[in-house]
Amino acid sequence: MRRTSIAFLAFALASCGEQANPRIEISDAWARETGAGQNTGAAYATIENTGGADDELLAVTTDRATMPMLHSSESVNGVSRMRMLQSLSLPADGTVELRPGGIHIMMEGLKSPLKAGETFEVTFRFKQSGELVVPVKVEAAGAR
Amino acid sequence: MLVKLRFILWALVGVAALAGIWIALKPPAELPSTAEMPLDTIGGPFTLTGSDGQSFNSAGLNGKGTAIFFGFTHCPDVCPTTLARLSKLRKQAGGDDAFNIVFVSVDPERDTPADVGRYAELFNTPVIGLTGSVADIERVKKQFGVYSAKAPLPNGDYSVDHTSTVFLMDRNGKFVATLAPEEGEQVALEKLKRIAA
Ligand SMILES: [Cu+2]
Q1: Using beta carbons and an 8 Å cutoff, which residues of A are at the interface with B?
Q2: By C-alpha distance, which of B188, B70, B120 is closest to A142?
Q3: Domain limits of chain B?
Q4: Which InterPro entries did the record assign (chain B) (predicted)?
Q5: From B160, which residue of chain A is nearest by alpha-carbon distance?
Q6: A43 CA distance to ligand 1 centroid (A)?
Q7: Which of A41, A108, A140 sits opposite B157 (nearest CB)?
């Protein structure tokens, strides 16, 4: 019933020429400090889609790492592993949290250590919303 | 006729009630018991290599409880998150001296003593970083029932899948409990207090 009315609403909106769009907001972007010699780092952020349509995070880029990518840490039977995500869906009116031990931006091929207190830029590329450049703050390794 | 039907219906109600009572009183299905696992065999003395390149014997940990975590220094997410969590909880459980935090590399081919030393120092609290020869590490992994395996990355590099459980040992190096990343802060703190001085 509910599904039907939503479908009808979507149809009505579409036929009026009024399109719902995703609206992406990124907050609390941070990365953990790394030590000399470490060739990987991790960055996190909260991605909110306050719009009325779905979107998808397709890629992340930064000039601080040669191969930044989306990763997910998962624990199966007490064994933790990281897996690459091709993309990350961002449902309308939803929030996806990139956080320690979960989905993260894997800074593979780190060019230089991430020092606590500094800020660097990460570009997020979305399927619908285009690109967003976000400052990422480096926090002390033991901060959170 | 009607009386007979009424009797049958009441009888059915009675049977249903008895069935309900039986289900309620029936002993629950046997749950797997952790006590059956040979937990007391976890751990034991070991010798690895400290961040100074000198051999490190586990006897040096005695006198204080110890939280041991296995990981690798190129691990950007789960390993530093676990060490940050342990550092923070140790402060709450009694301070930086409350127990030892030990980080053992499961990537001895890449992690030199200096690497584990630098990694351990990142947390601004005493963390003992250990590595060793491949054979040494394999032996200690077996003692703790730790699993690890290389997982290739697209750029030819590799990550390491590994046991993320923290092992809590008492002041004599005897196994006390495990601590999983999924466990809540309150549960974790209670467990850590059991090994805190
Ligand atoms: Cu990762």
Answers
A1: 32-42, 66-67, 69, 71, 73, 75, 78-82, 84, 100-101, 104, 106-109, 140-144
A2: B120
A3: 34-196
A4: SCO1/SenC, Thioredoxin-like_sf, Thioredoxin_domain
A5: A81
A6: 9
A7: A108
- Among left, alpha and beta (phi > 0; psi -120 to 50; other), residue A117 is left
Q: Do residues B161 and B146 touch, judged by C-beta distance below 8 A?
A: no
- Using an 8 Å Cβ cutoff, are B179 and B68 in contact? no
Q: Could you tell me the two tokens for A126?
A: 């979305």
B17-26 per-position pLDDT tens digit: 555 444 444 4
Per domain, the residue ranges of chain A are 22-139
Contact (CB<8Å) A141/B75 = no
What does the alpha-carbon distance between residue B87 and residue A32 come to, in Å, rounded to a whole number?
A: 15
Q: How far is ligand 1, taken at its centre, from the CA of residue A105, in Å?
A: 7
CA of B184 to the centre of ligand 1 (A): 23
pLDDT given for residue B3 in this prediction: 54
Distance (Å) from the alpha carbon of A70 to chain B's nearest alpha carbon: 12
Q: Above 90 in pLDDT, residue A1?
A: no
Residue B127 has pLDDT above 60, yes or no: yes
- Which residues of chain B have a CB within 8 Å of the CB of A67? 154-155
Give the pLDDT confidence score for residue B8 in this predicted structure: 54
Where does A22-139 sit in CATH, by number?
Answer: 2.60.40.1890
pLDDT of residue B88 exceeding 70, the answer is yes
One of 3.30.70.270, 3.40.30.10, 3.90.550.10, 3.90.1140.10 is the CATH number of B34-196, namely 3.40.30.10
The interface pTM score, or ipTM, of the predicted complex is 0.84
Distance CA B58, CA B94 (A): 22
**pTM for this entry:** 0.82
As a whole number, mean pLDDT of residues A121-129 equals 97
Six token digits for residue A66 = 């040669």
Burial of B68 (0-12, 13-18, 19+ CB in 10 A): buried
Higher pLDDT, B156 or A129: A129
